[in-house]
Amino acid sequence: MIHKVAAFYQFAALPDYRALREPLRAFCAGLALKGSVLLAQEGINGTIAGAPEAIDAFVQELAHGALFGGRLNNLELKFSSAEAMPFGRLKVRLKKEIVTLGDEAADPTRQVGTYVEAAEWNALIAAPDTLVLDTRNAFEVAMGTFEGAVDPGIRSFGQFKDFTAKQLDPAKHRRIAMFCTGGIRCEKASAHLLARGFADVYHLKGGILKYLEEVPEAQSRWRGECFVFDERVALGHGLRERGLREQELGHDRDE
């Protein structure tokens, strides 16, 4: 059986996120879905897998069902497949943030950088006045990244704000283009930089996964593989499975 995998997130006001946990968990369990979903006041983030029709029903409920009441009508969604179920169980967890940065001024529901579609990304990062910044963890960068990208050398996304405080200057770095696996970290990072006075901030819409899905390999500026936080471990162009099992690497989810 081929399993359908959905990676999704949206920054949206969910003041009732605690009350949403059990109904969402029950709905997923009823569809025999497995994976990880994070709920916070600022939105939702997760990756789940299951039968194709079950994933479709799940996405329909998030976007249009009664549970969220139309608040998740702008989900960032990416679909891929797995020959074996890439998750051992279902987890629906409550968090302070759906991706942890620790900067209250970074609010993507108020302001974010300019979204760049995958088809337009190559031209942006090739421009000599663009600082290309990988917002992922060092072990992810080691597996693959874009040509010429700066590696912040962080162990978790929460350290990104310390890197920017020490290494980036709004007066010097006039144009910054950021990317991450699925888009959520660089979206929040863009809100952080805008709050710090950086004026020209861009981020790759849908992240590396959308780029690998849409950009032909012959035109790609991506080098290596893209780490994903499930048992497939890494994906290549066309979102083809690569790599070892997650438990053999021992890395915690950061996106």
Structural features:
disordered C terminus; 255 residues; five-stranded mixed β-sheet; alpha/beta; 29% helix; 14 strands; four-stranded parallel β-sheet
Total number of helical segments?
8
Number of strands: 14
Largest sheet: 5 strands, mixed
Q: Characterize the overall form.
A: globular
User: Which quaternary structure do these chains form?
Assistant: single chain
> Mean of residue pLDDT?
90
Which ranges are low-confidence, i.e. pLDDT below 50, for 5 or more consecutive residues?
244-253
- Structural class based on helices, strands and sheet pairing: alpha/beta
Following the backbone from N to C, one meets helices and strands in this order, namely: EHEEHEEEHEHEHEHEHEEEEH
Radius of gyration: 18 Å
What does this protein look like?
- With 255 residues, this protein is an alpha/beta fold.
- Helices cover 29% and strands 25% of the residues.
- It has helices at residues 17-30, 52-64, 118-126, 138-143, 160-167, 184-195, 207-214, 246-249; strands at residues 3-11, 34-40, 43-50, 76-82, 90-94, 114-116, 131-134, 144-146, 175-179, 200-204, 222-224, 226-227, 234-235, 241-242.
- The longest helix is centred in the first third of the chain and has 14 residues, at 17-30.
- The two termini are 26 Å apart.
